[in-house]
Write a structure and sequence with these properties.
Layout lengths: L1 H19 L2 E7 L10 E4 L4 E4 L5 E4 L5 E8 L6 E7 L4 E6 L23 E6 H5 L7 H4 L6 E5 L8 E5 L7 E5 L2 E2 L20 E8 L13 E7 L7 E9 L3 E9 L7 E12 L8 E13 L3 E15 L5 E2 L18 E17 L3 E24 L8 E3 L2 E3 L1 E24 L5 E23 L10 E23 L2 E19 L8 E17 L4 E12 L3 H5 L10 E14 L2 E22 L5 E23 L2 E23 L6 E11 L6 E9 L5 E10 L2 E2 L9 E2 L2 E12 L6 E9 L10 E8 L6 E8 L6 E9 L1
Parallel strand pairs: 1-7, 11-14, 34-42
Antiparallel strand pairs: 1-4, 2-3, 2-5, 5-6, 8-13, 9-10, 11-12, 13-14, 15-16, 15-44, 16-17, 17-18, 18-19, 19-21, 20-43, 21-22, 22-25, 23-24, 25-26, 26-27, 27-28, 28-29, 29-30, 30-31, 31-32, 32-33, 33-34, 34-35, 34-36, 36-37, 37-40, 38-39, 40-41, 41-44, 42-43
Length: 796
Amino acid sequence: MKRLLFTALGLLFCLSTYAQNHLSGTIVDSDTGEPLIGANIILQGTGRGSTADLNGHFEFKNLAEGKYKLKASFVGYDSYEQEVSLPGSGSLDIQLSTNALLTEEFIVSATRASETTPTTFQTITKAELSKNNLGQDIPILLNYTPSVVTSSDAGAGIGYTAMRIRGSDQTRINVTVNGIPMNDAESHGVFWVNMPDFASSVNNIQIQRGVGTSTNGSATFGASMNIQTDTKTEEAYAEVASSAGSFNSLKNTVRVGSGLLNDRWAVDARLSRISSDGYVDRASSDLKSFYLSGGYYGDKSVFKVNIFSGQEKTYQAWYGLPESKLETDRTYNYYTYDNETDNYQQDHYQFIYTGKYGDNWKTNAALHLTRGRGYYEQYREDDDFASYGLDPVDIGDEVIESTDIIRRRWLDNYFYGLVFSANYLSNDGLWDVIMGGGANRYDGDHFGEIIWARVAGDTDIRDRYYDNNAVKDDRNIFAKATYEVADRWFLFADLQFRQIDYRFDGVNDDQRVVDGSQHYDFFNPKMGISYEGREGHTWYASFAVANREPVRSDFTDNPITEIPKPERLNNLEAGVRAKMGTFSYNANIYYMGYKDQLILTGQINDVGAYIRENVPNSFRAGLEIDASVLLSPKWTLGGNLALSKNKIQEFTEYIDDYSTADFQQIEINYTDTDIAFSPNMVAAAIIDFRPIKGLEIGWMTKYVGDQYLDNTQDKTRQLDAFLTNDFRVNYTIRPKYVKALEFMLKVNNVFDEKYEPNGYTFSYFVPGEAGRELVTENFYYPMAGTNFMAGVNIKF
């Protein structure tokens, strides 16, 4: 009995000793003392790891007595190693130094703003994206950033999604990935459905509102998004992430990485699949993607290859919800044909080099290729043969001029080119100069096929009823410089010359010949001043000019002699950025004056297609504020507010008139009206609560004010204001057998708000008691009511 008692006491003593061994510390930037939030700390050989919190603090509990090798790492910093002994090491103060060569950070420097750049921007980190990444597209993940309004055709954030920033749609938001342009060369849009789960391979996103500093791709006319993909990791890793939720939504992702091999090589890979039935009837999505990256990391150079691809099949919900069904059947979908789908695959190849020469020079160059191909399939009831260039069909004594058909409309394109830059930093640090440019070509085929017809007539399957090709060359050179003219005062200048050649030929889908070419020369200057105060404030002011060519439909829908003029934007920005301990904020005012902005007015071309027209003068002006405060180690409060005025000085609306035998268009003149889809108020608030280590609970609120479906400011063509609330739970534990187990839950639209952030409208006159009567038809894209996604990530 005595032996048993002593043995038990010994075990209790050992357990007590084991439980009392804790290791903690802080990890900060060696130069600034700022905490490195999200830095990784591991105890090598134990499988134990930790992440620095908002104060840079980390902690290990319940460690056995002994010696450990601790390793700390953070992107853009040299890693740190230290041997610690327990008990006795106390609290560690770890300071990381920035890399002598910022390696992959320099890849995006030509399109990025820095702290001294006099423009309005915000950077969203991987950690912030990961909190909400359960399968929805990037626009939905950015919903709570300033001045952003998001929408989804299927209503659940999976499939076709879109975003507007300051009221500007995706065709006016310049997007680059690792400095390489992503906007479609012809439509200027970015189709996020072709990049499913791309957020899982993103390191950070910088959003610049206004003209910003982006130098590659189509001109920024509302904002730019500069995306940097995952950078190398010091340690090997593997991750399996799965999530499921409403509307049979599923996401499965596998990520692996080699870490640094022989201190020189690294390989990272991701494989994803996302599926969803969608909130709207039949608005299903079946999405697949992969990401593969390999790099060589020398002392003064980095070579990197990125290959990523997305394949999507989505059932069409493009028609929208008629106003008559808004209160009775919000999930209604006009399309019922079982294969009314969009099918597309897009492959991206990036070959990137960055290097350091001497003490003053860094260079970056990238070759890229994007290969896209796919079609959307449609069932068309009682279509005219003439619409397809076909003659009527004679059957006996009957002349058949129309029939039911199924058609496919194809895109088959290549986009490839080179972007490059060189950075000079003077020895005294006063001059920071970047020079560079790019040359890109788009070569795209557009064609349509009839794959079935109830009455076929003189046509064979796969016959092309239209076929045209477009080639667009886009070249630019730029030079930008920041000069410290006095202590903490910085002057900034950015000069870009952009040249475009666009030529197209063939037959359009409306059976018109569209042969032509166009040339543009644009000069886009930017200049500004900033001051870094000693209390953590940076004040700035800037003026920038951007010129933008018309999109493809402006060329093909207009006679070549009547192509709209290019648009011009003059942008003034002024504001302050501040970070003072646990409190940070940004406040800015802006004015965006447009010359010859292109809008839909109802005007039609010679075959009845609606075309865009230039309006001489329009503007956006506003105030934006965003702030975040760490109320205590457990509570964080953040939010943003955007107030704006968005006006068209004068324009003419054209309305189809069917009230008489002779078709005509009625002209109505308007002055001082709101620009379509431009709410005067957008606001968001986020509160995070961390009751225990590893658990974070978030509540997110979003408000979007009234906006209009067109530019007439007509109350009958309005999207009503809405207020939504989302709830989020993230819980991380670190058991011995894996690096981390992460559990995630996101409840969207907690209070079941009925809202529509997007839609379209058209009006026409019909015969009426007073001679004619105006009919307006509104269509909406409703968002889902209360819905959820839940997931688990296992990290090895």
